[in-house]
Amino acid sequence: MEHQSPMGALLFQIIFLLAIFLMFYFLIIRPQKKERERHRKFLESLKKGDRVITSSGIWGTVADIGERTITLKVDANTKITFSKEAIVAYQPDYKKKEEEKKD
Length: 103
Known about the structure:
The protein has helices spanning about 5-45, 95-100; strands spanning about 50-55, 60-65, 70-75, 80-85, 85-90.
């Protein structure tokens, strides 16, 4: 019958915890970091006239861009101001139609 040393068990636990941390990093932390960077670049690229969607599902056209806010024109006489982070995407087919106009 073999007797396992306490150092071997400690080493195994350290390697096991390190492996779990690496899996956590590559499956959760790193993708979230990339998504935050992509969203930051998206917000920086917005300009007046872009048609966007907010996180609450409101569709509108960018009327004004402040340092921390964006004002959307949602109807003929209706403008709503949002936090920049609330803008999540361009309206579907907006960029495709814009590219077709250039051709």
